[in-house]
Every structure is written in C-alpha cells, then in structure tokens.
Amino acid sequence: MAEKVYGMHHIGITVPDIEEGIRFFKAVFGAVEVFRTGAFDVDESFMERRLGTPPHTRIRDLVFLRCGAGTNVELFEYSGEDSSARPRRNSEIGGTHLCFEVEDVFASVERLRAEGVEFLDGPNTVTEGPLAGFNWIYFNAPWGQSLEIASFTSLGYEKDTGERIWRAKPET
User: Fold this and answer.
1) For the chain, which residues make up each domain, given as ranges?
2) Residues with pLDDT less than 50, the chain
3) CB 150, CB 134: distance < 8 Å
4) Pairing mode, if any, of strands 58-66 and 32-36?
5) SS3 category, 3
6) Do residues 127 and 135 lie in contact, with contact meaning Cβ atoms separated by under 8 Å?
7) In CA terms, which of 76, 114, 123, 146 is 20 to 30 Å from 97?
C-alpha cells in the first residue's frame, strides 16, 4: 500500500531576479515571505546528483512564500544558467501554469490592471460542462511564467459526483 499523500506542499519556480519575484507575488497575490535561505554552500556533485542541474550552477537564493490557504510558492534564483531563456509555452511538453483561486476574478482583474498587470482576453466564464461556473483569466509574470486567477461558487461536475477539487473555504 502506498504512503498517504496529504496534498501538494509547494511549487518551485526559478526566476531571473528573486527580489522582483517576491515583489510580484506580494503585489499580485498578497504573498507573505515565510523564510529565506540565501545562497547554498554546496559542490558540483550536489547540484548535479541531488537537484539534476548542470554541475556549474549554484543557488543564489531561495524563498518560501505563502499565498492564501493553498500550496506554497518556492522561488529560486540560480547562477550559471542563461537567465534570458523563456519559460515553456502552455502548449509545449513541460509547459505549466499556476492557478490561484481568488474571491472574485472580475474585481481582481480591475485591481491588477490598475497596477499595470497585462492580461490575455477575459475574464472568461465557462457556461457548460464539468467546469460550468468557472470564471478565469490568464496573464504572465514579468519573467514569462504563465499564471491564472479564477473564482467560482460551484462547478458543473459537482452534480455528478461527491468528489471535489480543492478550493478555498470562504471565511464564516
């Protein structure tokens, strides 16, 4: 029997400038800095054999951010890699996006547009199928990471099963 899985602890993202990443997540998602490690004092073997990175790379800094009640975000800044490389597009193998549930996607978009965040088309509302009731919009972090914010009261699939995806619990 497999070990019990409690849930997703964190998502690690490599950013070109950790200070920019922290400012962005604080401004957009109200992130709270939980802790920071600074540079790692490790050798080439550690980088290659434990992290799967080229042996000449190094971790300049690492920070854990708390964004609401969900999964934590861990930001890394490395040296020794091409920091101008673009993240994979969502359509490419290994492409990813992070979705944050917000109270009201429409109000969040208004606030963030006023702060200069540029969005793709939307906000959008799914009207049919398992995601009926899902309000969402995509945008990119300054370093190109694909992000999404979403809000909903209930979703279409809920009428067909007792299983539920994670979601924020409104404060009572």
Assistant:
1) 9-81, 97-159
2) none
3) yes
4) antiparallel
5) coil
6) no
7) 114
pLDDT of 43: 93
pTM of the model: 0.90
Task: Assign domain 97-159 one CATH number from 3.60.9.10, 3.10.180.10, 3.40.50.970, 3.90.1210.10.
Answer: 3.10.180.10
91 contact partners, CB below 8 Å, separation of at least 6? none
pLDDT value of position 84? 78
The tokens describing 105, both together, are 């996607």
Q: Half-sphere exposure of 27 toward its Cβ, with a 13 Å CA cutoff? A: 16
CA 25 to chain centre: 9
Torsion sign, CA atoms 75, 80, 83, 89 = negative
- Helix or strand holding residue 101 (H, E): strand 97-101
